[in-house]
Write a structure and sequence with these properties.
mainly alpha
């Protein structure tokens, strides 16, 4: 999502911070539970099925706490500021990273994780909030966009054949005649075309 400057044309609509935080906490908690299950399955000694919760349950709890705090602080910050921009992600990243640093139990770790997550999430949101780059223009028709890309990168077939040659399923009209001529010049005998299709024989 591109940063919203919150101008007069774009009236900010408040969001429900609690429900979005609980949803994100459940999502992150599920991911943490999956990682805990993977870690339990890689144990060298035999552990019971409840070791996911008893031995490695802190992973799922940490993930759920980070997701909940991050999303709640992001939405609450946007509601208070009435703007939906990258500063909300910076605030949320600082608090979410601090929760992640609580596992270490030291102030430098809390501040370091908070600063790292704050900068990362703010820069990610500022640059468009998408891994695959900026979003496509909704005013451009998808068919026309793809046709433009095809024309931009299309090469003439003559240029392709000049580089790689005919054969290997690349056949222009008159290919069989040219092939027979090359074989006659190279080996001195003429190849008579035979159709292997019994319906056309």
């Amino acid at each position: 999502m591109a940063p919203n400057t919150g101008g007069d044309d774009d009236k900010y609509k408040p969001q429900d911070a609690v429900s979005t935080a609980l949803t994100m906490g459940a999502l992150f908690g599920s991911g943490g539970l999956f990682l805990a299950a993977v870690k339990t399955s890689l144990e060298k000694k035999h552990v019971g099925p409840w070791a996911v919760f008893t031995k490695h349950g802190n992973i799922a709890a940490t993930f759920a706490a980070v997701g909940t705090v991050y999303e709640f602080s992001r939405v609450a910050s946007a509601n208070l500021r009435e703007k939906n921009d990258h500063y909300n992600n910076a605030i949320a990243g600082a608090l979410g990273g601090a929760v992640l640093g609580l596992r270490a139990g030291r102030i430098p770790a809390i501040l370091g994780y908070g600063a790292l997550m704050s900068v990362t999430s703010a820069v990610f949101e500022y640059t468009g909030g998408r891994i695959q780059g900026t979003g496509r223009d909704p005013n451009v028709d998808e068919y026309e966009r793809k046709e433009m890309l095809r024309k931009r990168y299309r090469r003439p077939v003559e240029e392709t054949i000049a580089e790689i040659g005919e054969g290997r399923s690349i056949r222009l009209p008159g290919y069989e005649e040219r092939r027979r001529k090359r074989l006659k010049e190279a080996y001195g005998f003429e190849v008579k075309p035979v159709c292997a299709d019994p319906d056309r024989a």
